[in-house]
Amino acid sequence: MPDAPAVTEGMLRVHGYRLFWKSVGAPGVRGTLVALHGGPGATHEYLLSLNDLAAHGYRIVYYDQLGSGRSDLATHVSEYSVDRDVQDLEELRTQLGLGRVHLFGSSYGGMLAIAYALAHPEGLRTLISASGLADVPLTVREMQRLKRELPSPTREILERYEARGEFQNPEYLAAVMAFYRRHVCRLDPWPPEVSYSLDHISLPKYGTMNGPNEFTIIGTMRDWDVTSRLGEIRVPTLVTTGRYDEVTPTVAESIHRGIQGSEYRLFEESSHLAFWEERTRYMNILRAFLERNG
Asked: Which of 49, 121, 156, 261 is 20 to 30 Å apart from 195, CA to CA?
């Protein structure tokens, strides 16, 4: 039986705040993959299926972004922004001495990864957008389409409480969960790591940047759109999505079209978390991409 990969973790002071980080596996010729969680305001735990890569010579580095998980909350919510998360990521990469990395971003983390690639291409070996987004208004339109396609009782509950602004009503929250089980993770039950991250979303950050739930993006990132700049990204890029993804294939295809030479993979049995829902296939495709471009 192979030895378990080495795990180290700690707190790093970045721009005046402590950020929690964890490293799984030893540095080696395969390189380091940095994993960016979504939310914004989730935790790194739901990405831990990526530990599968450690058995194949990769080091995986996770961290909780400012205002998330075990990292510090910001003094004021105005500090929560894509630009700040980009700056923090670059400082973390530098302080940990990671060199050029494979950058894996899930959901909002994919959005952050794209923003980082535009700002700091010198820090990257490859870029992986896992159900990420480059155009929030397009993503919102697609999510609203998915909501309209829900069974009528669920859809009507959502519309009724949204019209009242009652986003925390228990009946409304149950209907939101019905959407999530279709379009966030279709496994039953959810992996404990996924449940943990959802249960520990940072409301100050999520509410500020996103909004009350996944398909109601009314926070500060609501107008974020870098579609016109995707052609500036020149590092090898893999774009993945699920057939039933809340960040729909239409969104993923727009990223794929925008980044010249990027690869695109659609997971037919998955929604937003294909790296859990079709874990073995996902890791095989991810490994093949990394090996071709490492």
From this structure: 156
